[in-house]
Amino acid sequence: MQEKKTIELEKILGRTHPDEFDVYIRENSDSMLSDVTSFCAYFKEILKKNGISQQMVFLRADVPERYGYKILTGEKSTRQRDVIIRLCYAAELTLQETQRALKKYGMAELYAKIPRDAMIMIAFNERPGGIIELNTLLKMNGLETLRTSGSQG
Fold it and tell me: Residues 98-109: pLDDT tens digits?
């Protein structure tokens, strides 16, 4: 199944009776913002496509391996958006893939009107290097660096 755009789903909802809600959910499950498990499946699919191991992602993201595995299996969840951004950047996700990953995880997408998010978006597009270079770029522009898993609540 192909993911449907919000406008398509809204059209379908316009002609959906409340009794048909379960059918709507079942038929459009690929398009729903769901839970952490859909993030896990999506992220692993991209890792496979990009030919990058989970271990390499954790190393590049500077995320402890045990913690990273627990996030990617859904055993542990995080409210730390920076951790998910670090994982996405380290796994070489595109900006569009990162936005979708954040949505699937239930987190706010990067937003162009927020200076820090804007710089992160530029980094996803330009790829100036790894996390260290991204953090250097943020710092040089007077913006808060991407926090590690232990320094944010």
Answer: 999 998 898 999
